[in-house]
Each structure stands twice: as C-alpha cells, then as structure tokens.
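Residues pack. Consider this:
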Amino acid sequence: MKENPAEVMMGAAVLAAAVGFLVFASQSTGFGAGAANGAYDLRASFRSAEGIAVGTDIRLAGVKVGTVTGMMLDPATFRAETVLTVQPDIQVPADSTAVIASEGLLGGNFVEIMPGGSFDTLAAGDAFFDTQGSVSVVSLLLKFAGGGDAAAEGGQ
C-alpha cells in the first residue's frame, strides 16, 4: 500500500488543528484548573444554584478569578454544595459573600464574590459563611404580572 504524501500532510494538519483546538478549549474554560496551577478550592452552599454548572465563571469586581469545579446536592440539607476553584493570587476575605448573579435579563449566570472587610482570608477548603442563591426571573415576572394591584382593585 502506497501513501500519498498529500494525504499524509492533510491528515497531519487536521490532527494538529484538533490538538490545538483541545488545548485552547481547556485553557479558555478553565478545565484542568486546580492544583496544577496553584489554584485553591473554596466551598459554598446555596439554597438554589439554578443557572450555574461546572465551568461557570467566578468573578470578583467583574473580573474572572476562578471557575465552578464541582456541584452536588447535600441530601441532609437539600442545599446545592459547590466547589469554587479560585486563582492562587486572589486572597478572599473571610467575611466575603458568594452570590449567584445574572449578566442581565437574557444573559447567563455567574458566581460573584463580594469581598468583606476582614483581614483574615479563606484558606483552601474553607466555606463561605454567607451565600445568596439565584433568583428565578420567571417567578419575579409572574409576581409582577399577577401582583397585588389586581387584588387591591377587586379584580377589575
């Protein structure tokens, strides 16, 4: 069987492009982040983690500082337990709050760290004491649309 040099070169180019794409995708999504680059894990427990998933950005002052790397349901408390992997150069004050925020009405959600004023910082494996889960836009719209105004007017 004789190989055509043009086919071999084309196959090598396709393989190189695929490897390049995988490297780019893993770097841009933070996949594989963690101990390899010195990042550390923090934990947060939310009443509702609707809108976030593994790979969701963690932001501080609007700047991406990490990624959600784990999510599970605590069967005892029925709360969403999340693992937040944060860049090693970011020292989060111990009294900070983790909030699930939205980029806008049609935008996606992200985890926002709202820093506190403590001089103590969270260490690897520590948990946020104060968290705020996601707010369902649909339920807010339903409350607004069916709000108390119609009831106050006697249903007219």
